[in-house]
Amino acid sequence: MSSAASFSVWDYVVFTLMLLISAGIGVYYAFAGGGQSSSADFLVGGRSMTAVPVALSLTASFMSAITVLGTPVEVYQYGAIFILICFSYVLMVAVSSEIFLPIFYRLGITSTYEYLEMRYNKVIRLFGTVLFIIQTVLYTGLVIYAPALALNQVTGVDLWGAVISTGVVCTLYCTLGGLKAVVWTDVFQVGIMLAGLLAVIIQSVLLQGGFNTIISDSAQGGRLNLWDFDPNPLRRHTFWSITVGGTFLWTSVYGINQAQSCDPWTARKVSALDQLMPYLVLDILREYPGVPGLFVAAAYSGTLSTVSSSVNALAAVTIADVIRPYLNLSEKQLSWASKGLSLFYGAVCIGMAGVASLMGGMLQAAISIVGVVGGPLLGLFSLGILFPCANAKGGLAGLLSGLALSLWVCIGAQIYPPQPENSRPLPLETHGCNISGSSNWTANTEENLERPFLADNWYSLSYLYFGPLGTVTVITVGLIVSILSGGRQMKVQSGLMLSKDDLTFYKVYSVLKEKVSGSAGKFDLVQEPEKSFGKTNFAFCDVELFTQTPA
Length: 551
Description:
Layout: H1 9-31, H2 39-44, H3 51-62, H4 65-78, H5 85-107, H6 113-119, H7 122-155, H8 159-208, H9 211-220, H10 239-254, H11 276-284, H12 291-323, H13 331-356, H14 362-386, H15 392-415, H16 420-423, E1 428-429, E2 440-441, H17 466-484, H18 504-517, H19 527-532
Antiparallel strand pairs: 1-2
Helix pairs in contact: 1-8, 1-12, 3-8, 3-12, 4-12, 4-14, 5-10, 6-7, 7-8, 7-11, 7-12, 7-13, 7-14, 8-12, 8-13, 10-14, 10-17, 12-13, 14-15, 14-17, 15-17
């Protein structure tokens, strides 16, 4: 371990303050304004949150420690092609806004899983809810464990002390303060994350002599590998795997250094790739007491924001889809049930952190979890929205088939990791390291382990395709079973299917056609949207985002 890897008293002070302030916000909202007297107060903040903190909270929830620590490692090891994931966000927004949001908006539902009961039956709604809970618990366990392990082995921070303190603080302010505590701690944590990341970026640029030097070194080291159009689905990262696989991945979530330097991993200064970012921070910021602690606080702010949002979402979904439909409870009882569920799920997520220790790199593990479960769920919603012949038998058969197939390839990939010719890691060098001897590194190779035929074919499928595999399987199997079980004769309730009137292009075409024909009358860009949006559906009503005052 390098002498750079040390954590000073001031670093501990900064990190501890972040935890204490986060917990303090939860305690404050537990008592402010009469406390959390109803389930609506606890789960949706009484629908009185303003737009800015809600937007910042969404940003914080997206920026987990996996993003802060895992993404730089992915680029360091496999190149900058991963930035193409931004294209998938654009495609995801288009798909979500055109296909899924119009249906949920029109139906006025507050939980997306309500749609599954309307379109199929209660059993499939329950299946979807349980899968969401399993996915979120697994992902949250990884979010808690991965940064704690990386920081433990680089800084010496106690592993399980970090895991338990993170989980306890999150559970505390979620249970006490509800959504308001989650949102306002996220706002505080966004500031911490920005400060920590800016400190690292500014110091890195200063040490390397400017952005131009960094770009030049990256190009010389082969890191600017942005355009790889290889259609082979076994390749880890290509234009197609990142954009297509990424679109399926994010739709399932939101729709429903230079080459010649001292490489610290090859030089054995760190024992895992996920430790590279903390090592870099401690190395370049060691002369500034407290600043490394600020970065650690930034990483853990990402963890806290993601875990708190997950715990709140788990409690909300359980109340809406499991408890409220079957038990006749008062608002007071639902409020206490919500708090109890937050406490329960917080404890489960801490325990699940142990399972995360069995998985690989944090970014790949996170995307795999979301893809394996989210892909089949996306297929189930798509089947119901796009195909009128889909019935409950087809939906259930497709969901189970897609889940089984995704799990099969994911577990196989864990047992038999893809060979270097498919994962294609970039070369790393140790010429600049202060160690005896120098060596180049390209990839870790397995010691003559016998690999079955499927290992280098089926199990080597890019992890970004786990989601699309599940989605396509659900739709294919679901259609076949639905047709064979009389799906063509069924009549679907009006409003549960996507229609041409839901599509933006069709709406634009209709308006232009009316204007050209002269029958549209006065076309007011301000008044027209106000007549149709945000008024009939309280789940999507824009007044939720603003503080309501008595008349």
